Every structure is written in structure tokens, then in C-alpha cells.
Amino acid sequence: MANPKIRVMLVDDHAVVRAGFRMLLGASGEVEVAAEADSGEAAYLSYPDVRPDVVLMDLSMPGMGGIETVRRLLARDRSARVLVLSAHEDSAHPRRMLKAGVLGYLSKRTAPDTLIDAVRAVAAGRIYLDAGIARQLAMQDLAGSGAVDTLSEREFAVFLQLARGQSVGRIAEILSVSPNTVGTHLYNIKQKLGAGNQAELTLIALRNGLIEA
Questions:
Q1: CA distances from 10 to 72, 186, 201, 203, 209 (A)
Q2: 176-178-181 Cα angle (round to 5)
Q3: Domains with residue ranges and CATH for the chain
């Protein structure tokens, strides 16, 4: 009797990207796309009904975004197996995602065969890291933590939204907190990073490879 296929939920805001991944995963003969979501909000709502073996999650999406979605999914179900696929090749994103509980982190530039290997590993409950990202993490461990790493998980989420130009009010909506709470985080972020305004926060994010220009 053939082994059951690995059921994957694809989460990406671009339909063309999802179509490409669907074809790639399906061609392996080992994986089937059980569900798709075009936003973090949609993924969070549909996850309990789908119960996929692996959630393949893009980090850079409008609205709640991948980072907050991962945090909420794993808060709801610690057994959820999440594989992040991101255009960000810095070390801060994978470090925080691994700390949050994801099992895999790949660059979107990874080879197709590597993606299948990663899905297979994460479905089995094993950690899988892109080789380049693993090297960056190891190098940063040797060099010591930077200022961005001093931010708490919530401060980091607020920092990324601010760096992308979001207002305090909009961030409060996205993260489901009060504007006053966001304001407190903003104050702490500026203190820790030595930034005077939102433009400087954006520059820091760009220099650390956390957002794209």
C-alpha cells in the first residue's frame, strides 16, 4: 500500500506564486496541496478545518503578514508544522521564526529539490534550514547579537510594520492591540535601536536586510 501524501497548505498573497508551488509540489508525487490562502488572516481562519501536515508560509504579505500569522497559529496549535519560505535572507527573521516554533526556513531562491526535501523533513517533525541561512546564523552566533536582536518578539513585529511605513493606528489593527500599546513599543524600539524617527527605523531595517527597498 502506497504511503499517504503529505498534505500542504500554501499561504502566499500572489496567485501565480501559489500556482508554481502547486505544480512543483504535485510533480513530486509525494505531496498534495490540500488548501491555499492568499493572506495570513485567511490561513489562520481555515487552518482548523484543513489540519494540514505542513503549512508553507510566505512571510511578506499585506495585512497581518506571515510573522504574526505564524505566531498566532503556533499559539493556537503548538503541534502545527510550519515551513517558512521567504525572500528575506537575513539572520534575524529565521532566528525569530525558529524561536517561535517553526520547523523549517528556506530562501525563495532555493532549488526545487530542496523544497521537496524540506517539506518531507518538516512533515516528519524535523528542522530544516536553507544552507545559506544556517551559515548566517552560525556566523552571527560567533559574532554576537546586534541591536535588532535585543527587541522582544512584539517589538520586532511593530518595528517591521513601522519600517514599512505603517501608521500606529494601522499597526494596532493588524496586531490586534491598542494604539497606546503600539506607542509604548515604538518608544522602546527607538531607545534600543538609537533611532529618532520612523525614517531612521526604515533605514535600520534596510541595512539589516529585513525589508526590501
A1: 17, 32, 31, 31, 25
A2: 110
A3: 6-141 (3.40.50.2300), 147-207 (1.10.10.10)
Sheet of 128-129, strand order: 31-37, 6-11, 54-58, 82-86, 104-107, 128-129
List, as own/partner pairs, every contact residues 104-112 make where C-beta atoms lie below 8 angstroms and the sequence separation is at least 24, other chains included.
104/128, 104/129, 105/129, 105/130, 105/133, 106/130, 106/133, 107/132, 107/133, 110/85, 112/24
Query: Is the Cβ–Cβ distance between 52 and 34 less than 8 Å?
Result: yes
**pLDDT tens, residue by residue, 11-63:** 999 999 999 999 999 998 999 999 999 999 999 999 999 999 999 999 888 88
- Alpha-carbon distance of 63 to 83, in angstroms, equals 20
Instruction: At 46, list the grid cell.
Output: 481555515
Residue that is written with C-alpha cell 496586531 in the block: 175
Residue 31 to residue 62: CA distance in whole angstroms: 27
* CA–CA dist 188, 186 (Å, integer): 5
CA distance 68 to 148: 18
